[in-house]
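hey all, quick one before standup. I had two proteins in the batch that finished overnight and I want to keep them in one place so we stop losing track of which output belongs to which input. First protein below, input sequence then structure tokens straight from the run.
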Amino acid sequence: MIPFAYQVFSTVIQEGTFQKAALKLNVTPSAVSHSITQLETELGFPVFIRSRSGAELTANGRTILPIIQEILNSQARLEQEAADINGLNAGSIRIGAFSSVCINWLPPIIQSFKKQYPHIDISVSQSSFNEIVQDVKNGTLDVGFVVTPVSENLLVDSLIKDEIYCVAPKGFVPKNKKSVTHEDLEDRDFILQSGDYDRDTKAALDYYGIQPNLIHFSIDDQSIVAMVEAGLGLGILPELALQKIPGNVAVYPFEHSFYRSIGLATSAVQAKAPSTQRMIEQIKAYVAKKYPEAVLVRA
């Protein structure tokens, strides 16, 4: 059996405080504190920095996180295999995704998956690209939607190429009537998410020679559209992010096409879990049906 302290350690990281971890585990805060103190005594070093605002991992705590998470994940896989043998189809799956995938893809994917496997628990975490990659690497997520390429040693299946568009206030029309060119972008301000900069959008900005002093950062896709609608600048958003965002704006392709590549990442260890395998199959089937032109390959 897995030591309870390992479960407490992982839950405190997920919840951020001892109090919230206690509620999640249905134990008292003192039981959580006692378990962590016992773990630290056994290891010989502190794993959390405690403060009024919560608990933060120490450097040593970050080092042991992937190891403890691997032990917990191995136990979960064992339970899933046993459930499969007994015909129960039980287990759990932890998915990490960025906002446009959460909005457009995950609802139908999860709905279809739950019809087939009603006893498999699903949790979804919305995070940035880099956070998703790190959580998959650490084992706190089973699968994660990422923007490729990924530098970490993970298993990554390519899903689609998502074209990047220029979002402009209503009434804006490119000079050539079809696509945005250098001439349309002179002395224009741009609004984008800070997490997107230095990734795919930077390629577009660099290509058109947009200076950093003309770039302003927003919180999310919806706020970018709202600011563009108010005439505060032009936005750069991928097609998937624009599918369900209302707004009185104009959307045009760039004269030179730019894309972000969306993939699905998992670790070699978690890829062996039955529930993870089933979810990956479900996601691939959904993407293949929605984007028949897509070629799904493992990067």
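OK second protein, same deal, sequence then tokens:
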Amino acid sequence: MSETGIPSTRATPVPGHGLLRDRVVVVTAAAGAGIGGATARRCLEEGARVVISDAHERRLDRSLTDLEREFGAESVAAVPCDVTSEDDVRALFAAAAERFGRIDVAVNNAGLGGTADLVEMTDEQWSRVLDVTLGGTMRCTRAALRVMREQGHGVIVNNASVIGWRAQRGQSHYAAAKAGVMALTRCAALEAAEYGVRINAVAPSLAMHPHLVKVTSEELLTELTRREAYGRYAEPWEVANVIVFLATDYSSYMTGEVVAVSSQHP
């Protein structure tokens, strides 16, 4: 039982069912134990071939080694990428297409948070969060679209956040960036439809992983957990399951949507 009095039994991971068999998936910010890493793993479990990317090369190498050991070197590749660099983003999608022949799905997961009241926030803090979180998503969406337009098909899934809908102190920059990701997703989806490309987004709330624990106060984590209907945080793989759904043909008529993985949709 959670502190809210609501049962908080942990969910059980579901096995793969081949939902993405032979699809080629690119996932940014996929090194580590967060949503990106969980998404890469879930896509591999569903039979995809996956290109993982991250700005942290050492972590990326470790993640590649782990995934190769479990799923085989023929199913996974790694390409370092800083999503604030247009050259890096172009190189990522070119390398993925060259390695596997096409790109069926792009999961734009990279983002950067931080906490600062607006009155004390520097231009550098504001710009850095916006450049990684919104600018990076734009660059990756654009690069993926250029490949998918030529193919005549593809799916893009962006990682937004419920904070794009609701207010939270100290999060002006991050909330603005995530609201921007939502708007970008809706607008780009209208443009991409003529190419046979779907673009949607997920909006998680609290998906727990070790890095989040390091950079977030226990008080805030407790508060955010209490806001959830189940009285617990999401596991990263639970968010990844929704991303997988949006990547599959089961969501073939969905585009321009932002799907809340939380009870906090306004």
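Flagging for whoever picks this up: The helical segments are 35-45, 57-71, 86-100, 123-151, 172-192, 210-215, 218-227, 236-247. Residues 123-151 form the longest helix (29 residues).
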